[in-house]
Amino acid sequence: MFAAIGILLQLLVYSSYAINGPICNYKMFPVFTGGDKDEFVNGVEVDKITKYIFTAGKSQSGNFCPAENDHGFIYALDVNGNWMWGNFFYNVSYAVQEVTGIQMSSNGTYLMALGNANSKPIVMTLSKTDGSIKQFLTIDPIPAQTETPTYYLYSGIYLDERDSQDGQTYLYLTFSMNLAYTINIIRILNNNLGEKLKIDWHMHYNKPVGAPPAFGNQPRYLFNDNDDDKNFYIVGQYNLMGSVIKFSKGNANIKYRLSFMRGSITGLGTFGLTDITTYAQAQSGQIYGCGENQIDLVSGIFRIDQLGKVKYLTLFSISGQRIPCHGLTYDDEKATSTILISTAQNAFKSTLFQDDTVTDAMLYQFSDLGYLTKAKHITFAKSDNKISTNLRFSALQKIDNYYIWAGTAAGYTTEFNQATFANSKTNPFTMRYLDDTNITMKCIRDQDIKITSSLLSYQESSLYTQYLSSLPITADGIYKLMNKFVAIYKSPYSGGFPLQVSMLIPRPCSSNSANITQTNYFYGQKAKQYDLFKSGVIALQQKMSPEFEFVFQNGTDSKKFANLGINTPANKSIVYVQTNDDRLVGTQKMVLRGCDELNNLHEINYFINVSTNSAPEFLVDIQTVWSLSYNDNITYKLPDFQDPEDNDQGEIYINSMENQEFPKFVKYVNATKSIIFNPNSKIYSGRTYYFSVVLKEKNSDYMMNTYYLTIKMNGDVIDEGQEMDNATKIQMTIPYLNQNSEGTFMFSHPVNMKFIQNNFNKTFKVYANNTEKQREELRGLQIEWIEGSNTTFNFTARFQEPYLLGLLSKRDDLLIFECLNQSLIVINPQDEILASTVASKRIEMQFDFRDEKMQFMRSTSLALYYIMIAIIAIQFFLLLFKNVGFLPLWTLIEYMQLIAFMPIYNFKLIPYLYDLFKPFLISHLILFDNSKIYEELNNDYFNINYEYYDLPVSKLIQSLTNICILVMILVAANIVIFAMSKSLKASSYGIFLLSRLSQFRYNTYLRLFMLAYFDLTFFSLMKIIEVNNTTTMRQVALFISYAFFVISIVAPVFIVAFLLRRFSVLSETAGKARFNSLILKIDKASRWRVVNIAFFFGRRLITAMLLTLPIDSEYIFLQYIFILTTSHSYILYLVAAKPYQTPLMNGYILANETFYSALIILIFIFSDATPQIHIKVYAGVALIVSIFLLVLANLLFIAYNVWRGKQRLKDDIQKAKQDRIDEEEKERKEEEERKAKKKKEEEEFSKMPDESSNNMSQNIDVNTTSQLQNGNTTVSELILNKKKTKIEPKKIEDAIVENDISQQTNKSTPSVTQQKNNTIKPAAKKQSTYTLNKDKTSDKLQRISSADINPKNASTKTKGKFSDDKSSKSSSSSGFGKEKRFIT
């Protein structure tokens, strides 16, 4: 049942194997791109806001960028692997040769790119959403320099959108220049992207005096200080040492420089880091870096704090091999850093692929103390496909739980695909990787790495570091301020242009992929169809789950351009393409993709070439102004025309102009391409008319040229109203519109139906007006023209959301046909006129199963029929096998019966909700949605509510037939078991059969009666009120109906009366066994609890009677009032009486009734009392939830019963009985104490405070005192003293013994006062005494009233409590009270 309800809840959530589900979505990566030559990747960046992934580098491919010379590129993917955009860049006529680094601006507004163009540094500020250039800056040496500088560019760029000190916008960049590798650090004021652009300061950082020329300076990264926004860092190489340098933003002062020097350390060799190739910064400001010693071939990862102090340095190496660090990320939550390295050395790899000629990528994860905690080996290679992974620096990022990196490769091998790029050495790829995947996500070839400790060493960092606390700025020294050394130019003539290739297909992790040959479409034309079946890819499409998607490569929905038919089986393989948007001109790359139940990804790539298009034009100008007189008859032939693209035929028609009256005397003859002017009525005189001639493509409603014509009529104006009084009024009506959106449109007089047929969209506008007076366009309108008819045509409408129409009775949803130009359709415009230009029809509830949601609910309903049958069958056998009772099964069926008929109450549910209730009809033995019995009655309904519910008479007959079959099966089973028990009575098997035979007296037939009671009563009443009794068969059915209706009233009354009258029968084991199905798990200690069965029959009897009321009856409101009040009453009864044996059972039944009551309350929302449609939609969801909770309560209770087992459930029942007895005994004692206290207060109040009374009181006190001293006390006084004393609670057995002894004592030892006066007697009180009655057949706990022990008190009743007197008398007369034994 969980799976079934889950199907319904998919109205709000997607399937687990949908394309955006986590398992299938993981297979969207890696993504490859590139051309037929080499590409190089220089960096990757992620935007945490849009979750875009940017990859940058340069290309030498002429089919990726426009030529085979160097072109810088950037492309963007979203986190789901969709291609968002990809650009190469130009400034004037110079290409951006390479993008060396990218970084998001401080607030994430822009993507900043550093590169070179025309051998000069350039900075691009890009839109992250489409890659367009917002600002293009060029750094150029001023003319005073004598030599052309050489620039060495990396990723040193940062845009501070708002400085923390002065609020300005500053651009920071760094690079090396000339052979001296002088570090240049520049801050540029860049408010509003160039509104105010100038160099704020420019610093040179040279090598120390005497440093060898080969000692380079490489400022790789420039980034902000997370701990102090007034500072920034540069990380890279300084004087052949890996260095971290901290600067002040305002004045460029160096705060410190940390360098990893290379030196010979005794016992350790000559190690150190000559370069820091990657970094990450924690939120706290601590810096994590990774670099290498390119001389000694050692790499290392380190952590430094905000003051530049090294916290750890971990080195790793293998003899004679370089292990470069390509990227590093830090996870603040897990306090771990992860580096991306690459190597061909097998010692650093896993056993997945061992080949020292192939370079693979590895992820190494370190703790905050520098210890390796995890390592992964990721490869594109396989034994038969030796593909190396090529990585450069700034290659690793992290977004959510995914690692993101980019690089190049000459091919790939995954678990699903294998490819080699034959004409290219390296193609770019972007990887999204989850290092902790389950087996269903497997595609990327990866494996855990087990690293030997000999490859790692944790070093004392002070042996390798050099710390410089500050460095002064000098006029001519190592660190100096430059003035007018370079200039910054802003170029308005730059732009980004789309790459010629997007992602390469197939996607490496797709299980199946297909490419459809590029198809052509001219924009503006009508929808063009492409058949996937004919393309040979329909089998692949059928593998996808229903949640497949048809999207552009950027992941956006393609419905406004291309969509897949889903309305009928015939069009499910048809792709419809249509657009009027000229921005889509070009090749549109589409993908139809989805996953199957095994989470395999399938893709169909579909490229559509959208060509430019334009409307046809007349070869010469047409005459647009005409002057006419009464009775002129002029024929004007239009000139020839031509379509510029020659891709379609042209067609012409005339049309009215907005807010202008169309000249009724103008007609267009298509055969001759002529316009006829014939103003044959005087009412046209003196007026000016306007109309248009439309020249359009035949297959387009968009590509058209419109020519506006003016007609000036000569003469004086004549009153048109007087002229048209005698004209024939033509009525437009919609006489018929059914719930399947099929209707008929009719004119009262003949019209030009041929013109309407050819020009329907020009003559009529068809739409719907909802109850809130809002216009809704139709999704479609199919017209069936009736041959030879000039007055009528049939149509089938398709509404936007048909299931939301017709839900209100007092407000109308209207279907409207609006005539746009009546003069075009009337045959005689001078003598005929439309009475109204609008025809409307109320839209009743629509059951249009062409709609996707209606279709889904109908198919789900059909599946749930069999699921519910299976659930009930499994429950039956499970409970039978565990022998824990059938209470949950029968309870579920009973509530299913009540719920199943809720849709035929006089409410209008949302049409798709009717299918939600249908599976519950199996509780009425309607087991199939299509009835094969009396098929001629499949369209015969009791009233419209039954038609909405699709509950025809044939289904009711199906229910009656199945009831009869069930009766015959049970009778046959009874006979067979009886015969077998007689023949095998001497065997153990015969004893078993006798025990089963006892269930037919009377449990089996009583349960059958309860199961069929609702339906048979309902069917009987329906037949009784039916007026058609003409045939003998109908008369026999009427007689049987009267007979059962009488039985349906008499039988329950007899059963309830019998149980209440012979209540003591339920004290016997045999008695309870006979009626167990009636009082299943009911506590038999009180008649008040057994009354539960009366409620069962009464509710169903009256509900059946109310369901037969005609919907136009003035008493129809009683349906809702009755079910609501009875449900609430039953809830109160359950809370007060707690009729079932254990609190859990009472809670279970109460939960079921509560959810049923919630359904009753919610269903009222579907009346006109709630006119808001959106509230009805929410109520529909709440209905689904309530039904789910009701079924869930059943499943949980069954699971609990099965888990507890038979014996423990019996123990629970015994404990619950004991607790109930203790509680009732406590209440009884409290009641007696309350009465005694009240009596005492009344006695004290009745005493008179006069003198004689005081004297008498004194005498009594003296006598009393003397009696107490002598030990004489009356029974009344003893009782009074006893009430004043707090009695210690005792067990049931102790109370029984004490009561028995006290009675004997009172009988044998009367008080002195009784002997003397014989007038004072104790007040007669009814007491309940509990015993453990052990008879020969049962050890169950029985309750015996005090009337059985003391006959004198038998007639005494306790006020406010239920009396069990009749039960006691009946028990005595039946012999059940003769063998009472008191256990002491």
Automatic annotation (TrEMBL):
Keywords, in A-Z order: Membrane, Signal, Transmembrane, Transmembrane helix
Superkingdom to which the source organism belongs: Eukaryota
Biased composition (Basic and acidic residues): 1226-1250, 1333-1342
Signal sequence extent: 1-18
Residue ranges crossing the lipid bilayer per the database entry: 863-881, 893-914, 960-984, 1005-1025, 1037-1060, 1090-1111, 1117-1136, 1148-1166, 1178-1200
Compositional bias of kind Polar residues: 1300-1332, 1343-1354
Stretches for region Disordered: 1218-1258, 1289-1384
Protein known as: TRP C-terminal domain-containing protein
Naturally occurring in which organism (per UniProt): Stylonychia lemnae
